[in-house]
Amino acid sequence: MSSPPVIAIIGRPNVGKSTLFNRLTGKRSALVSDMPGLTRDRREEEADLAGNLVTIVDTAGLEQAKRGSIAERMRQQSEAALAAADLVLFVIDAREGITSDDKSFSKLARASGRPIVLVANKSEGRAGEEGFYAAYELGFGEPVAISAEHGEGLSDLVGEMLAALGLKYVRPGEDAEEPPATARPIRVAIVGRPNAGKSTLVNAILGEERMITGPEPGLTRDSVPSDLEWLGRKVRLFDTAGLRRKAKITEAAEKLSASDAIRAIRFAEVVVLLIDAERPFEHQDLTIGDLVTEEGRALVIAVNKWDLVEDKQKTLKELRETLGERLSQVPGVTLVPLSALSGRGVDKLAKAVLDAYDSWNRRVPTPSLNRWLEEALARHSPPAVSGRRIKLRYITQPSTRPPTFVAFCSRPEDLPKSYIRYLTNSLREAFDLPGVPLRLNLRKGENPYAKHKR
């Protein structure tokens, strides 16, 4: 019987290698801390990679070291792991970007001749975007965006690892080409201004009086999770404290509640912004909507107290017009009228949330993207700037959650924002991506696979 493939996790200190090791092995055998250099020896554990037995190796952080020092011995251990590996996960910290050590050790990894998957850890939120795109310069192709700490992006990473090792996803008793839908619950946060009816809505969804409700604003102070099944899908629902403008937050506990609600937005996958039909789209509602899209979460807007609205058609039209003007960065956001008190409209909300989640996770094949790009350029070619026409040569989708695209361009800094908007809107329309944040980033250069292949 052949031995399991060996997968070595390497990178400079404190990029999250041990956290990723723990995620992949399903154990907490590797110590995790913000202190660099905590891991010194190689640590090996067997793991189940989508039905395939593999050996995962955690290594000390690669760093420049003096001869005879502990750091040099740690580096030797890491180089030995690299030499014995069948696959290398080269981990960078997307929040810190590419450092000189990353560049130096990427040469060491490439010289090993092993297949390499580039992992951009700590990619949650917008803070990691710049480092994620800078990682292309290491020459390992598309980085895989993950957050080892929060478990985001791991299904994409497992898919890349299986492809690199020539393995398939294995169900018990049979083989399959693609992994089944994850059993992990979809994280859904209900957010909004105080007293919008968030806890009442959660009770209506759960079918029981789980949350304290009442006319007094500020009854909810913690982001409280509840597990349920919605239309056959597992969901973890978070009721959150009402978010008010900072100037109006005075009580210390409410300050903590607000920060907890903001944290829930950052780690949710779909956010339901609940607004009051009698006072719709006040400034704070729109501020919360901006925060949700800025963080790259899928957004659904629920309009509560719809039973109190007299002219429903006129009000719905006005709300959609306001939404189109004030949240223009995410056209097509679903608007769901409902009554949290009676539960009317909750089924439509469930469908809207699951549809938004699916769009947020949508991946478009690279050939389809490049056919779209050719057609988009033919319909409306890029403008000439200073007498020279800008060329767009290639597009790919490095990550989902939200759908993120990278187009390679001759002069990205000169491409007008209006043309980028045209491309973004065309992408949404062509691949059915309404109502979710969509990132389209430009990088200078040719097709990144022309020179570097794994």
Short précis:
With 454 residues, the chain is α/β, with parallel strands linked by helices.
Topology:
Elements: E1 6-10, H1 17-25, E2 43-49, E3 52-58, H2 70-84, E4 87-93, H3 100-111, E5 116-121, H4 129-134, E6 144-145, H5 154-165, E7 169-171, E8 174-176, E9 186-191, H6 198-206, E10 224-230, E11 233-239, H7 252-267, E12 270-276, H8 283-294, E13 298-304, H9 312-326, E14 334-337, H10 346-360, H11 366-379, E15 384-385, E16 388-389, E17 392-399, E18 404-409, H12 417-431, E19 439-444
Parallel strand pairs: 1-3, 1-4, 4-5, 5-6, 9-11, 9-12, 12-13, 13-14, 18-19
Antiparallel strand pairs: 2-3, 7-8, 10-11, 15-16, 17-18
Structural descriptors:
single chain; 454 residues; alpha/beta; Rossmann fold; GMP Synthetase, Chain A, domain 3; 6-stranded mixed sheet; 12 helices
Characterization of this structure:
- The protein has 454 residues and is of the alpha/beta class.
- The chain has three domains: 6-176, Rossmann fold; 186-360, Rossmann fold (3-Layer(aba) Sandwich); 366-444, GMP Synthetase, Chain A, domain 3, CATH 3.30.300.
- 33% of the residues lie in helices and 22% in strands.
- It contains twelve helices and 19 strands.
- The chain has helices at 17-25, 70-84, 100-111, 129-134, 154-165, 198-206, 252-267, 283-294, 312-326, 346-360, 366-379, 417-431, and strands at residues 6-10, 43-49, 52-58, 87-93, 116-121, 144-145, 169-171, 174-176, 186-191, 224-230, 233-239, 270-276, 298-304, 334-337, 384-385, 388-389, 392-399, 404-409, 439-444.
- The strands form five sheets. It has a six-stranded mixed beta sheet with strand order 2-3-1-4-5-6, with helices on both faces. A six-stranded mixed beta sheet has the order 10-11-9-12-13-14, sandwiched between helices. A three-stranded mixed beta sheet has the order 17-18-19.
- Strand 5 (116-121), helix 4 and strand 6 form a beta-alpha-beta unit.
- The longest helix is centred in the middle third of the chain and has 16 residues, at 252-267.
- The protein is globular.
